[in-house]
Amino acid sequence: MTKDQKVVAIQEIKDLLQDAKVVYVADLEGLNAGKSSDFRRQAFKQNIKVKVVKNTLLQKAMEQIEGVDYSEMFPSFKGNSALMIAETANAPAKLIQGFRKKEEKPALKSAFVQETFYVGDNNLDMLANIKSREEMIGEIIGLLQSPIQRVVSALQNKPETVEAKAEEAAPAVEESPAEAPEAAAESTDETPAAE
To answer: What pTM, to 2 d.p., does this model score?
Structure first.
């Protein structure tokens, strides 16, 4: 690879990493062409960008990215490396897990997710269980809707409750006017006696 080709390759990697919030580096070594193609196809369906890269070029590109210090990931850059960029935090981990049900590879080398570094394949299960932004929003909306649904339900049932209370109160109202004339008669009887 010529110096110009290296510069172009580093720039391509930098373009991928520039605004990436979810960065995985995986080992695809051992996958034949058909399996590798299948892995890429599944990644494309899940909106995950996959690029096989040279470790030295990946490291140089990461060193040039401002705002994120990727140096924690550098020791994992050995052998075959595939850069995976996604919008959803757990999508690449789930893809790797799903693929490993049938195959030994791919293996997770390292990842940068939600401003945290994960180094080593032993982090794969934890990464797969990270809730995506959409899942978190869905849970929050569900939690917020729960009290609102109770209030709406109570308001919808309120007319029935008001009618039931009105029926209970109606006989009491009918009895009060009947008692009122007797009380008025008693008060008129007492007034002349006082004079």
So the answer is: 0.66
